[in-house]
Amino acid sequence: MSKVFPKVLERVVQNLARLPGLGEKSATRLALFLLGQPKEETQELAHSLLELVEKVRLCKRCFNFAEGEWCRFCLDPERNKSQICIVEDPAALSAIEESKAYKGLYHVLHGLLSPRDGLGPREIKIEALLERLEREPVEEILIALSPTVAGEATAAYLVECLKPYSVKVTRIACGIPMGMDIRYADQLTLKRALEARQRL
Amino acid sequence: MRLVTKALVLNRFEVGESDLLVVLLSPKWGRFAVMAKGARRSKRRFVNALEPFTVFRAHIRGNRPGLIPFLDQIDPLEYWEPLRQDPYRFVLASYATELTEAFARPQVGGNLFPLLCGFFDLLCQGGPPDLLKPALEIKLLCLSGFAPELSRCVRCQRPRPLRGFSLEEGGGVCGYCLRESDTSISPQVLSLLKTLEKYPLSKLERICVPKDRLKIGSSLLENFLVRILGHDLKSLRIWKEIKGGEIGEQT
Description:
The complex is a heterodimer of chains A (200) and B (251).
Chain A: H1 7-16, H2 24-36, H3 39-55, E1 57-58, E2 65-66, H4 72-75, E3 80-87, H5 90-99, E4 104-108, H6 126-135, E5 140-143, H7 149-162, E6 168-171, H8 187-195
Parallel strand pairs in A: 3-4, 3-5, 5-6
Antiparallel strand pairs in A: 1-2
Chain B: E1 2-15, E2 19-26, E3 30-36, E4 54-61, E5 70-79, H1 82-85, H2 87-103, H3 112-124, H4 129-143, E6 162-166, E7 171-174, E8 183-184, H5 187-198, H6 211-229, H7 234-243
Helix pairs in contact in B: 2-3, 2-4, 2-7, 3-4, 4-6, 5-6
């Protein structure tokens, strides 16, 4: 890095360069941009980052991000408490929420089974889910994990774990995306789509 | 220059915002790495197939010395679908992949491709995982040049009856040469290891082995593998955890 910059600026560049997708050049560009911004805007950014680390934590019940002990979905009395949707991470929860098609509660695993990365059943929040089932009046578990190899294996593991509980276990459908030409679908997707066909 | 080869994924690493560095195993070139540009965003070129447990035809561009070639396109050929749907077999198949990657040196190891494919085939057909795992381990050792010496004493080189196994020296040890640091093994366990080495994977289900003997042989091989590699295998720990009774379906 150029040594013409003051040490404070160098420190900002070094810290920004640690963010994913940012190299030293991009980090320098961002740091110089921040310096050129009105002081209040840069201070607001700094304050929001401080608040992020101080206030945001995991919801005690579903492990979604929350500002207090509980997340907004667990606190919402309008949500259907008999349904729990299992998602991989808060980003997947956000995608499902944006669809506006689901009104139940969530459970965030914070990972998928990935033996190569050392992630087994103990490393993701499966035990906490089973504890929830012991104390909450849940009727349906909806597994909304991506249809990747790890997602499918995790879903299969969850199905095994949920067998002793008297809950209905469902999984989001897998098939041809809306607007896609069927000729370009791969054989595995087509096979799944045919298997999950619906009566009209 | 364009090259086409059959391959499967051994490992993948995220690079930047949208690229993947993919470690492939092919019968032609063994283990090699390719860069799949835009693979994390592409919905057409690599959908579904750039994952473990899939064989595809890889279209590779550029092979300049010192530069990683690019993966242009893949045509899926075969999916081992049951490995996605059974967590127990998924973890074991992941272990097999990690082990194969560890033993296949760069640009070498094409002979490991049919072994790994055969292992996946048998896992999908419901083959006995407890036998398939040590058999794969010992066959990988043999194909990579680390075959344990099981016919004579690794210390005195005499064909005496073996009473122990030296992890350091990589073979059986006779009663005269046995040291405290060696692992004691019975002639039955030794015979099991020889059988696993000799028998093709597809014929393993014909073998009937007592569970305790299999456990000892398997544990010995695991320790030997870790000793050779010099590091633990992450998926082996997960396999032991998941096998430890958390799932009912076990062979």
